[in-house]
Design a protein that fits this description.
The protein has 156 residues and is an all-alpha fold. It has two domains: 1-33, no CATH class; 36-155. Helices cover 65% and strands 0% of the residues. The protein has nine helices and no strands. It is elongated and about 55 Å long. 12% of the residues are buried.
């Protein structure tokens, strides 16, 4: 018996609307092509689309105002960095990691504090801001999972 036919025995019915059946067939093809299903699953469990923690970042900037320079824009830099991770994440979910640009990959290889060295003094302090820290860690987990996925794909 074919492994792929076992789950379809109970699902394939003439009573399903054709759109559902077409979607099922499409998802079956996607899953059967998936090289690293646990990586994708772990990424999908992350919550990357929460509201941007602007108020927490303002508090953080207020608390350490003496260490910030006027020309720095923590909100903008962090937003840009997280947007890149989310864009790479969407390529991974669509299984189009080969379409990622070298500039996107170079950003993925570094943490926020490595890429934006002016904020390094915050790295040890962000744990004091639980909402921000949790959000930061979600994006770091996504970044690591994406790099892991890309590495595994190159190894195959």
């Amino acid at each position: 018996m074919n492994f792929m036919s076992i789950p379809t025995q109970n699902v394939r019915r003439k009573s399903f609307p054709s759109q559902i059946l077409a979607y099922y067939e499409y998802m079956l093809q996607v899953v059967s092509r998936e090289k690293h299903p646990n990586t994708i699953k772990n990424c999908m469990q992350l919550h990357l689309l929460k509201p941007f923690p602007s108020s927490t970042i303002r508090k953080l900037q207020d608390d350490y105002h003496s260490e910030f320079r006027e020309e720095w824009c923590l909100n903008g830099d962090l937003n840009t960095y997280w947007a890149n991770i989310y864009a790479c994440f969407s390529y991974l979910v669509k299984q189009q990691v080969d379409d990622l640009k070298n500039s996107q990959l170079k950003w993925l290889e570094k943490s926020f504090f490595q890429l934006f060295e002016q904020y390094e003094f915050l790295e040890e302090r962000i744990e004091k801001y639980p909402d921000f820290y949790q959000e930061y860690m979600e994006y770091e987990k996504a970044r690591i999972l994406i790099l892991y996925y890309i590495h595994l794909n190159k190894a195959i």
